[in-house]
Amino acid sequence: MENMMKIYEFKGFPNPARVRIALAEKGVFDKAEFIQVDVPAGEHLKPEYLAKNPSAVVPILELEDGSVISECIAITEYIDGMWGDQTLTGRSAMERAQISMIQRKVEAGFLDAVAAFFHHATPGLGPDVESYQNEDWGIKQREKALLTLQWMDGILCHQEYLAGDRFTVADITAFGGFMFAGFIEMDIPDTCIHVRAYAERLGNRPSILLAS
Ligand SMILES: N[C@@H](CCC(=O)N[C@@H](CS)C(=O)NCC(=O)O)C(=O)O
Prior knowledge:
alpha+beta
């Protein structure tokens, strides 16, 4: 089939969900074949997978010519650019810059920070996978995630989505953060009322229901 893509992932994990949501939003879920990499069992650390992604994380996208794209944001750029209007990553230079700016802040400040807390300040994926842990740093990352939620609350008190009045990749990244936070039972503070309502709205979105 034309443009058939292989997605190496571990279903149910937050970063793979980001790519699934992007595919569902663009209506091209059926153009992807999903290949499971058992991350808790350390399959992503084996030489066959490292040859595809030396960063040892899922997901990756592999095209029919063998080229590989890693990093959810890059994979989403590809999917968004390949099919239809660039609704997720933006059309004009200004729109693209604004979406990119917010996405990056949410990724570094929330999703990656929650992930770092999990990997460093909890048993994470267990001793076979967690080769280095720094608890103090993990705890600091949790504080960073809470500050980012406050910042998001300030945005969401006057607009429906993080990068404006429509759903973009910044919201997909935020949902990955909510998934991760839910997984480790880290609550969204009661004070972040706009974030709490937004997380619920996202959770009911058809693409997210289909993908996560
Ligand atoms: N920045 C990466 C993050 C990918 C990532 O951290 N994936 C997790 C699964 S949700 C993973 O593979 N973790 C394996 C590990 O930490 O050993 C992306 O955007 O794709």
